[in-house]
Each structure stands twice: as structure tokens, then as C-alpha cells.
Amino acid sequence: MSKRILIIGAGFAGMWSALSAARLIDEAGRGDIEVMLIAPDPHLHVRPRLYEEGPANMKAPLRDIFDAVGVRFVQGTVERIHVDRNEVDMVSVTGEAATVHYDRLVLATGSRLFRPAIPGLAQYAFSVDQTDEAAELEAHIKSLAQAADTPARNTVVVAGGGFTGIETAAEMPARLRAALGEQANVNVVVVERAEAIGPDLGAGPRPVIEEALRELGVKWRLGAGVTSVDANGVPMDDGTRIDSNTVIWTAGLRASTLTEQISARRDATGRLYVDRNLAVEGVPGVYATGDVARAATDDAGNYTMMSCQHAMNLGRSAGHNVAADLLGLEAIPYSQPKYVTCLDLGPWGAVYTEGWEREVKLKGSEAKQLKHRINTEWIYPPRAQREEAFAAADPRRIVVA
């Protein structure tokens, strides 16, 4: 009787899980195990690039590569997980409901931007979290040229001074001038509740970030938060207000809500606790990977971040280990002790750091060249060639991007 590994999600972690599982099954010479992946869209959406221009183009097709390695892709959305009977309920892209059985499950449904219950946030704020949302922001910026020349029209507020907020803000002066004219008096303001820009990035790269933002003309407001959003700006919790027709919300991520359907321990962001093989604690046969997994990267107490750098290797490990579990083969514990960051700083350049202390190694144009390679080459899927895809999916191949 054939068996099935079911992977939910086609982001970085889901895609690499599917390729890695198929690789080990092929290596074992087994033709009785199916790798099935369910996702709403047969594309990898290159989410780390959605702060750039042209977000609608930031995706890569997956059907050909899945066909090349023997992964069965099913286009649809999983709505319920029934761990007690090894089944999921899904709705296909045509609206048909179905129940799918699995022998092993990999949850790789990623994360979403955290949107708290701030009045007006849902109605008036933009984001770069998903492809359609980033495209909506791009269309809005281009439309500003048709509006009256006012301070609100010329001002962008970026709410959240973390990784995504900084990268987005660094792009905005040039994008506003492209829409409004080079002589436009543009104003970009980052609002951050913490007392420092890039609070999660630490002190290491902060002088470089501040230098770049100053030269780009980006301002920041620290120790203050947005209390509401309206069509013309944001009131702040310190009693002030910033007039703006363009408010971009970038403050934090939360794991997919499907994690709530698995009775297991979760962290404050909703991620499932997993062991070193990425199996969900206390739930046999279920693995979590990417942004839905809280996994140790090393033996020094460091844990994965919600980033493609970790998701890619988490996917390779989860795919190998779920297949090894079913095949009765040895697992390869996930380990990714090297940690780097490469933060895009718009036309100014970028900053590249190494280690959890984020020691600056490159900045300016040199770091920008590295960031360009990461964004346009390293994070994309391999070609739709079986051997090449299998080689790239080997979990012993640790990629830092």
C-alpha cells in the first residue's frame, strides 16, 4: 500500500521540504511514497523583495520543478487539520471541498503581518507583506501625482522600524520622487515604539543604518506609537500627529493560524515548538518548518528567525527528516550555526553583518552587490532539472542568504 507525505504551503520552507523529501525517497529507490503539496498558488512568492518596485513580478513558477522531481502539486487551501485521524480538509481553487489523508504531515504555511486592533489600520494602511498588498501600495504611490500638492501627499509614514520597515523606508524617497517629480519636497518618516531604530538588529549595524537613512533624507520618530490611522495621517500616542496620505504598516509577524489546530506548545508569535529533527513536540508524524517552527539553530541557545535565510534550510531538513521517518532511515538534525543579515538601504547601498552579535562586515556598494545576488539569485528555486534540484535540496547543503 502506498503512503503519502503531505506538505502544506509553497513558500521557501514548503518548496524545499517537498524537494528534499522527494530526493531522499528517490535515493532510497522507493516508488510507493507520494509527496503531495497543497498551496493556493503554484508560485514561490519572493516575499523578501516586496519592498522593491515591481512586486507583481517577484514570484517564480513551481509546477515544472515539482513535475521534474515527482512532487504532486494540488492547488487549494487547507482549512482544517485533523491530527487524530491523519487528515486535512481543503478547498480546491475551483471551490470543491475534499478530505486528504496523510501518513506524515509537514506544516509550512508561513507567517502574516501582525495587524493589531488599531482604529483605521485595516482601512487606510498599506503593507508590503503579500504580493497583492505590495502591488496596491505601488499603484497608490503612482497615483499620488494626480492629487493636490500638499504635505500629506508628499509624506510617507512607515510604522515599524525593524528589518522590513527600514528596507521599505530606504526605498521611499526615490519612489516618491519618481512619481511626483525630482523637485518634489518628499518626506519619509519611520515611527518606532522602541528607543532605537532597528531594535531587533542590535547596536552593531545601527550607525550604518542611521548614516544611510540620514543621507537618504529619511527621518525617524522613536518611543512613539500610532494610535489610529485615517485617510490623512496618523495620530501618535504622544499627542502629536503626522499628516500623510500613505501609511505603511510593517510592525511584526505572526505564524499561520493553522498552528492553532495542532494541540502543541506554541511561542508568543504562534510558532510550534519542534525538536532538532523539526518534529512537533508531542505530536507523532507531524513536522513544522519555516515561519511556523520555533527551532534551535545551534547548541548556544539561538533560535530561528522568521526569515528566508532560515526557512530555506529548515525546509531542506524537514523534508529529509519526514521522509526518513517514513522510510525508517536516519534523520539529519537541523543545525544552522552561522547567522548573517544583509539589510537593503536603498540607493545608499546595504549593510552586511555576521553572527548573532551582528558584526558589520560590508557596507555601502559592496554590501549592495551582495544583497543583489541574494535577492536575484540565491533565494530563487533551482532549475526544473531533476538532478540539479535534488542536489540543491540536500540538507547537508547549508545555504546562508
TrEMBL record:
Residues 4-313 form the FAD/NAD(P)-binding domain. Keywords: FAD, Flavoprotein, NAD, Oxidoreductase, Signal. Residues 1-21 form the signal peptide. SUPFAM superfamilies: FAD/NAD(P)-binding domain. One of its GO terms (molecular function) is NADH dehydrogenase activity. InterPro entries: FAD/NAD-bd_sf (IPR036188), FAD/NAD-binding_dom (IPR023753), NDH-2 (IPR045024). Pfam families: Pyr_redox_2. Coiled coil: none annotated. Belongs to the NADH dehydrogenase family. PANTHER family: NADH DEHYDROGENASE, NADH DEHYDROGENASE-LIKE PROTEIN RV1812C. This is NAD(P)/FAD-dependent oxidoreductase. It comes from Paraburkholderia acidisoli. The lineage of its organism: Bacteria, Pseudomonadati, Pseudomonadota, Betaproteobacteria, Burkholderiales.
